[in-house]
Amino acid sequence: MDYSNVPYSRKILLAFLVVSVTFMELLDTTIINTAIPPISKALNVDVLSLKAAVTVYLISLAIFIPISGWIAETFGTKRTIISAVLLFTVSSFLCGNSKTIEELIIFRIIQGVGAALMTPVSRLILIHIFRRDELLKVSSIVGIPIIFGPIVGPLLGGFITTNFEWYWIFYINVPIGIIVVILMSVFLKTLKQHEKVKFDFPGFVLFGLGLASVSFVFENEGNPVFKKHTLIILLITGLLILTIAVIYAVRKKNAVLDFSLFKYYTFRFGIIMIFLGYLSIGGLALIVNVLLQMVFGLNPFQSGLVTFTAAVSAVIIKPLIVKITTILGYKNLLKIYPFFIAIPIFLLSFINIGTSPFFVSALLFVFGFGMSVHINMINLLPYTQIPEIKVSHATSFVCTMLQFSMSLGISIGVFILDKNLLMYNIARLTTSSDKTDALASFSTTFIVLGILSVCLLFFNSFFKLRELSFVSEEIME
Hints:
- The chain has 477 residues and is an all-alpha fold.
- It folds into three domains: 1-197, Growth Hormone, Chain: A (Up-down Bundle), CATH 1.20.1250; 201-253; 260-477, Growth Hormone, Chain: A, CATH 1.20.1250.20.
- It contains 22 helices and no strands.
- It has helices at residues 8-31, 36-43, 51-64, 68-75, 77-96, 101-129, 132-163, 168-171, 173-187, 201-220, 228-251, 265-281, 284-294, 300-307, 309-317, 321-328, 330-336, 339-348, 357-380, 391-423, 435-462, 473-476.
- Helix 15 crosses helix 19 (357-380).
- The radius of gyration is 22 Å and the shape is globular.
- Mean pLDDT is 81; it is low at 469-477.
């Protein structure tokens, strides 16, 4: 069955239904940031140790996104996305029902598996629903839920944890998930499956083990349960496994991650941009929310109000990016926008006890401009030289790198903050910790993150970008 005879108006409604799962995934990625301090109090753990609940979700996404296409082709897109939403919904309930941090981490991993299948498969279904000439026209319409996910997340998370119990940030997914499953069961068509491609099980295992090992080391550095030499051995092992995985993927046809894409110049450039960008900014939202609640004493909703300005400015500038690119030129914009990321991060290091939350909010508003341009660049640049037959492979690679870089960025940011707190003899950050020493720890952390963000600035400025004349306004849109 196909959608060739379905009226366009009904296709639009189906598109909103399909994209709603992306909204759920993006909402769940951001909603937890403002809830970290209340959850840590409820589970009686250090606030910084809860970074694992954020990063394991992202790592789970990174590991399972590459096989989402194979699963959809093997079991059918309709069956896959309904099963993914069910898994996401059930695991959301289990997350909310967690009594220990270990339980929360396990259920967040399962939730990440569901999310890893939802978003890529939803995009695949959209391609089946609309003709090629309709896709561009509909992209701005169905992009609305995707834009508002990151905006609603901090505010909704803060509102729920301020006025209700923290577990409702997960329980809220349950009724939404049930409704989506029912509607998809009724209205989505069972599409004809393509010729099945053999699953690259060895590649999946190698990359999964490598990514999980490296991430585990960063998660547990400083954890007294694990000795330093044990973590060093695990890190070396993880890097060795990843090296073997890359060598294997280069030689393997239809590998789970297609490294032949690196022969395309702009793909290589885009992947490095993703890595450098999220290394410095991946953990910023979490760290700022911890600062506002644990040091400045704001409640989660107030904290969400301060930080959501970054998402608002990102939305404001998005429709203007094409015009700005036309005025400045693509290469010049690449050199300029990192300043909007680096400067606000550096200025955050000047905060003190008397600093107004409005100052923090203003800095994040400026930061949102740079972040929006960065996202637009990495959504565009890796694909500009990729032939159509390789686009799905490139998407899997980009999404995997994006999630892993975000996870690594969070781990590094919290690691730097944790080490700075120990320098000031703060073993566990609480609302009763010495405010002056705690602020000094955050200030030093922002300086280090600012230095990391400068790496992106230098890379974009000095790395020679050739063959960019084909990046037109139509592509930027």
